Amino acid sequence: MSPTITTSQEYYQDQADPSPGTAIEPSASAIAQGFAQGLNSSPLPRAFQPLTIRGSTIKNRIWVSPMCMYSSEDGFATDFHHAHYSQFAMRGAGLVMVEASGVLPEGRITPNCLGIWKDEHIGNLSRIVNHAHKYGAIMGIQLAHSGRKGSTIPLHLYGTRNTLYATESEGGWPDNVYGPSPIAYDDQHYTPREMTIADINAAQQAFADAAVRADQAGFDVIELHGAHGYLIFEFLSPLSNHRTDEYGGSFDNRVRFLIEIIRKVRHVWPLEKPLFVRVSATDWVEGGWTGEDTVALAKIMSVEGVDLIDCSTAGNDPRQNIPVGPGFQVPFATAVKEQVPAILTGTVGVITNPSQVNKITEEGKADVVFVAREFLRNPSFVLSAAHELGVYVKWANQYERGRVKTKYSFV
Predict the structure, then answer these.
(1) Segment Disordered: which positions (predicted)?
(2) Which helix (H) or strand (E) holds 259?
(3) Which of 161, 215, 347, 370 can pair with 65 through a Cys bridge, CB separation 3.0 to 4.6 Å?
(4) Inter-residue contact 109 to 149 (CB < 8 Å)
């Protein structure tokens, strides 16, 4: 897949709003608009080049990574979620990915995680999407199932007790934690029951049903959460999957669960809407899932209708030895990009400054960058990046007077 490259003149002239000053909440085109004067035909810095995937044109390559907020009851999005995701859209993020959302109630990580397992969830999610669209953001949602890492306590309670599992009195589901094999993540998590074929079919259908709800809520993109030791990745890794049937053993068998989900989701998810998959590109444990496995999986996904592979790592085994550092996961995205050109790549992990983002994209190490904690520290990260890289981007009309006055170049 070849991403669309657009010059500043082509893009901003195409997106110009004939009367941006009249909008109380500026339209999508107004947010993307640049001044017509001084534009030239030189390409923008790669981080700010728009990217077209199927029917969506995303105005830059700096995207908000899905991050659990543990702020929901019964899976419902709240006023917090509306404010949280709106701030990124209002401040220029190209794509905002809503956090891991359980496709089943037992698919949540904690009792306070977001959900999309019932139709009643659609309305509150739709409100978030509709507001973000007014600011030109493309909206995604990560569809997830926690598997053996479910029924645990929220992050802010870590360190307050010896175990991480949530009891039934705390809203947990100790009797309904399951995975590919009856292997606990560690002694702080419940030991899961081994899934039957009926369980597998039900979980796969839950992903498809959630995709239908995501479409009804107006989301532009869905991402299947196949990383960090949750259910999909538990099937992928030989460390957590000891099955002897058609879903275990060989590489082809272990990826079957995910590939069948992709097919079910792609069948109901509109063809004009992109489909992403996040994977842990390695277990960082000897004998586990590897970067080579990720490349092989990407080759399969590229012909199954997946548009982008979002490369993270780890989360499946406490023995993991992770060489954490700036951009430490980028090489996995680069390997996929080089060996599977038919699929787009995203990377994440200790990416904290604009020059780092632009270097990753300019050097072709990944097509896009998912930024996580830096957005929590600085919701205006995209605006800061534009200032540092000398690119003019339209601020929301209500905030325009706060812009640092300087001469922007359209490079």
Answers:
(1) 1-22
(2) helix 251-268
(3) 370
(4) yes
Is the distance from CB of 87 to CB of 383 less than 8 angstroms?
A: no
The DSSP code for 217 is T
Q: Return the CA Rg of the chain.
A: 21
Contact 134, 28 (CB under 8 A): yes
The pair of structure tokens assigned to 57 is 């044109």
Helix (H, G, I), strand (E, B) or coil at 73: strand
Q: Would you state the pLDDT for residue 43? A: 74
Per-residue pLDDT of the chain (411 residues; tens, 9 = 90+): 444 433 333 433 333 333 333 233 443 333 333 332 234 445 789 999 999 999 999 999 999 999 999 999 999 999 999 999 999 999 999 999 999 999 999 999 999 999 999 999 999 999 999 999 999 999 999 999 999 999 999 998 888 888 899 999 999 999 999 999 999 999 999 999 999 999 999 999 999 999 999 999 999 999 999 999 999 999 999 999 999 999 999 999 999 999 999 999 999 999 999 999 999 999 999 999 999 999 999 999 999 999 999 999 999 999 999 999 999 999 999 999 999 999 999 999 999 999 999 999 999 999 999 999 999 999 999 999 999 999 989 899 999 988 876 555 443
Mind listing the domains of the chain with CATH numbers?
55-378 (3.20.20.70)
185 an active-site residue?
A: no
b/e sequence 54-69, b meaning 16+ C-beta within 10 Å: bebbbbbbbbbbbbbb
What is residue 14's DSSP assignment? H
Which one from 11, 230, 247, 392 is the annotated catalytic residue?
A: 230
Q: Which long-range contacts (CB under 8 A, 24 or more apart) does 261-264 make?
A: 261/204, 261/207, 261/208, 261/224, 261/232, 262/224, 262/301, 262/304, 262/305, 262/306, 263/304, 263/305, 264/204, 264/205, 264/207, 264/208
Is 308 in contact with 346 (CB distance < 8 Å)? yes
Please give the C-alpha separations between residue 172 and each of 70, 120, 164, 190, 303, in angstroms, as whole numbers: 14, 21, 11, 11, 38
**Rounded distance between C-alpha atoms, residue 38 and residue 195, angstroms:** 61
Tokens of residue 334, six digits:
């680069």
Only one residue has tokens 């919701």, namely 379
Residue at token pair 């275990």: 248
222, 140 Cβ separation under 8 angstroms: yes
